[in-house]
């Protein structure tokens, strides 16, 4: 009985031991599988297969062109743009289309002629013409009336022509004796003929004297100036681009010696684009050119260089030096101070016009570089003339302030009419 119990106990213990060993083994396997699964989860799929097929696959595009099968293995071709031609980057601003290159080429051409778009005005900006250099705030040479204020500098607003006052002045200015003081010559490209007589200046009802002062910018006086019977300009000015303000017609140009010498020097420039006077002179074709006799040789050479035919009225010394005495006589008659020094070209022009013009209108005569409110006014309405504004309005032997007061007095007395500001004023 005891032996049977002992055998039963031993068998039971043996079965328990086997069960424990099997259980332990199974748990160990489960634990190993769990560890293996965790390892796979944390480290991702093994890289060995990829490395065996494409070594350094992830950076292959940096060192070699794509190989067969390469695109299939790399996920979604994330860096395919690294090896495509640069033109594909245009897809940022233009969707891909057929003949894409041709379309973009046309687009670049169009941007050269269309108005500047936002963001590219610093790259492509229309250049200003020489006629726009003196545009000022509140002014425009074409459309807008100037915003200058002249105050006490303006001529009298109440004006009425006085024929008797003009006669009194003319009785003095005829002493200039233009018939002898202006000697007529033809120079340049023309055919000499006994029948080819030089026309006389004649006598005119209305004359426009056009000065070069910047005050004429934006005045819109062009048509008004051209409506006169005779148009006189000073010192070979620029007309093209300023027709709305200064008109188109020219019947006479009165120059000083410095202008002729600059023009003569300019005509010899090898680089013809630097010569600012050739086009100016051609625009004055058919007009009288009044200049000092001392520069007649320079004028002849200029006319030959430019292939122009000019009618030159060269002033004798009597007109150049005698004008000051005549101006002083007129000033004294009107109770003004005596005129000192040599007269300016503008003063000579005004006194000459009283001889052969019945109604004289002055435009662009304003020697000041600021208005009554200290707004800047260009000394000349056109650039490139190499003339600096006068210092204290006195240029060498000229007194521009005194001459301006002299003109305003002639205006006040109804001998001539000054126009300072917009057309119609």
UniProtKB/TrEMBL annotation:
Location of the region described as Disordered in the Swiss-Prot/TrEMBL record: 49-79, 108-145
Biased composition (Polar residues): 118-133
UniProt keyword list: Glycoprotein, Glycosyltransferase, Golgi apparatus, Membrane, Signal-anchor, Transferase, Transmembrane, Transmembrane helix
InterPro entries xref list: Glyco_trans_29 (IPR001675), Glycosyltr_29_Sialyltrsf (IPR050943), GT29-like_sf (IPR038578)
Pfam families membership: Glyco_transf_29 (PF00777)
Top-level taxon of origin: Eukaryota
Cellular component GO terms held in the UniProt record: Golgi membrane
Subcellular location: Golgi apparatus membrane
An example Gene Ontology biological process: oligosaccharide metabolic process
Protein's name in the database: CMP-N-acetylneuraminate-poly-alpha-2, 8-sialyltransferase-like
Species lineage: Eukaryota, Metazoa, Chordata, Cephalochordata, Leptocardii
């Amino acid at each position: 009985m005891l032996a049977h119990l002992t055998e039963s106990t031993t068998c039971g213990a043996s079965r328990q031991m086997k069960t424990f060993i099997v259980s332990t083994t199974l748990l160990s396997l489960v634990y190993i599988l769990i560890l293996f699964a965790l390892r796979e989860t944390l480290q991702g799929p093994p890289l060995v297969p990829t490395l065996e097929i494409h070594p350094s696959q992830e950076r292959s595009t940096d060192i070699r062109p794509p190989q067969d099968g390469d695109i299939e293995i790399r996920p979604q071709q994330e860096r395919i743009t690294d090896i495509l031609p640069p033109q594909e980057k245009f897809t940022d601003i233009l969707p891909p289309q057929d003949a894409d290159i041709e379309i973009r080429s046309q687009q670049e051409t169009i941007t050269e002629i269309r108005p500047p778009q936002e963001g590219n005005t610093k790259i492509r900006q229309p250049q200003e013409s020489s006629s726009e250099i003196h545009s000022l705030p509140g002014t425009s040479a074409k459309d807008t009336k100037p915003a200058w204020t002249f105050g006490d500098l303006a001529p009298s607003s109440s004006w009425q022509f006085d024929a008797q006052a003009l006669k009194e002045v003319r009785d003095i200015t005829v002493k200039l004796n233009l018939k002898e003081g202006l000697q007529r010559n033809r120079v340049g490209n023309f055919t000499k003929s006994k029948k080819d007589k030089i026309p006389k200046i004649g006598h005119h009802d209305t004359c426009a004297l056009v000065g070069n002062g910047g005050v004429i910018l934006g005045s819109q006086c062009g048509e008004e100036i051209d409506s006169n019977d005779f148009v006189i300009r000073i010192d070979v000015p620029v007309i093209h681009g300023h027709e709305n303000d200064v008109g188109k017609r020219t019947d006479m140009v009165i120059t000083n010696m410095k202008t002729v010498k600059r023009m003569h020097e300019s005509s010899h420039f090898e680089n013809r684009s630097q010569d600012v006077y050739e086009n100016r002179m051609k625009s004055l074709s058919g007009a009288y050119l009044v200049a000092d006799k001392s520069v007649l040789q320079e004028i002849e050479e200029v006319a030959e260089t430019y292939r122009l035919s000019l009618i030159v009225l060269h002033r004798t010394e009597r007109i150049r030096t005698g004008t000051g005495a005549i101006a002083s006589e007129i000033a004294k008659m009107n109770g003004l101070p005596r005129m000192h020094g040599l007269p300016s070209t503008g003063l000579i022009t005004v006194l000459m016009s009283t001889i052969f013009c019945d109604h004289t209108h002055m435009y662009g005569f304003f020697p000041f570089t600021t208005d009554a409110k200290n707004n800047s006014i260009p000394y000349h309405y056109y650039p490139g003339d190499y003339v600096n504004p006068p210092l204290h309005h006195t240029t060498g032997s000229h007194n521009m302030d005194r001459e301006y007061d002299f003109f305003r007095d002639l205006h006040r007395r109804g001998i001539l009419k000054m126009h300072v500001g917009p057309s119609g004023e």
